[in-house]
Amino acid sequence: MRWLVTGGGGMLATDLVRRADGEVVAPKRAELDIRDPAAVRDWVLGHRPDVVVNCAAWTGVDDAEHHEDEAMAVNGHAVRELAARAAEAGARFVQISTDYVFPGDAREPVPEDAATAPLNAYGRTKLAGERAALEHGGHVVRTAWLYGDAGANFVRTMIRLAGERETVDVVDDQHGQPTWTADLADQVIRLVRASAPPGIYHGTNAGRTTWYGLAREVFTLLGADPGRVRPVSSAAFPRPARRPEFSVLSHAGWVGAGLPPMRDWREALHAAWPGLRP
Length: 278
Prior knowledge:
By secondary structure, this protein is of the alpha/beta class. It has a single domain, classed as Rossmann fold, CATH 3.40.50. The protein has ten helices and twelve strands. It has helices at about 10-20, 35-45, 60-65, 70-90, 120-135, 155-165, 180-195, 210-220, 250-255, 265-275, and strands at about 1-5, 25, 50-55, 90-100, 140-145, 145, 170, 175, 180, 200, 210, 230. The strands form four sheets. A six-stranded parallel β-sheet has the order 2-1-3-4-5-10, with helices on both faces. Strands 6-9 form a two-stranded parallel ribbon. Helix 1 (about 10-20) packs across helix 7 and helix 4 packs parallel to helix 5 (about 120-135). The two termini are about 35 Å apart. The model has no long low-confidence stretch (mean pLDDT about 95). Its EC number is 1.1.1.133.
C-alpha cells in the first residue's frame, strides 16, 4: 500500500510514517505546501498513492483569531483541493480534524453526528475542511489533546515544569481525552485497512479527565508529588480564542465500522511514557 502523509514534520505524521507498512511518503511543508494547487496535483497524481492522510494544518488556535483568512486557506480551501485530487487518483482520503468543531456545552460524550458550532476561528476553519473531505467521499477523524514523542505538547511541558517550579497551576474546568499520537496512527491505519465506510470517526483515547488531572498523572509518573499541581479555572489563563469546556467524544463510529475504539487514556500514557520521560 502506498501512503501520502502531508504535514510530515508533525507528531501524528511522524508516528504514521513509523507505523504504516508499505511505501510511505511524508513531505514537510517546505516540500509540499498544500495551499499550492499545482504542487498538490503533482504530488498526488505523480505518486498515485492508495491513501492520502492530511496531517497538514494551521494549528495556532489563538493566531487564527487574528488571521482567519490565512487559517482558512490551509484548513479549509486547501483540504478541498487535496481531497479532490485524491478522489481523482482513486485514493482514499483521511482528514484529521478536531473537537473544536463543537461548542463544548455537552455533559455526555459527544456523538459523531452531533451538531457542530465552533467557538473560535480555528474550529470554523477545521469544520470547513471536514465538509470538503466529506463532499469528496473522504474520512474525517476528529481528535483532541494530542501528545507524542516527536514534538512540543502539554505532557512534555508538564515534565519540564515539574523540574523548574515548586508548584504548577493547571486548568481544571476543561474536560477531554488525552490522546497518544501512536495510538491514533494505529487507529487511522486500521480504518484504512478495514475499508471502513466514509464518514466521521472520533479518534481519541477513551475515558475522560481535565488538564489538571492529566498534569497530576504526569507528576505521578515522574515520581513527583502530584499535590504540587494546583487546580485553577480557565479565567486564570485568558486567551484570544475561547476553548470548549467539554471535549469528551463518543466512539460509536468505530463500533459501527466493526473496529474497536482506542484504549483508555491512562493506559496509553503509561505505554507512551518511556519515550516521553526526560
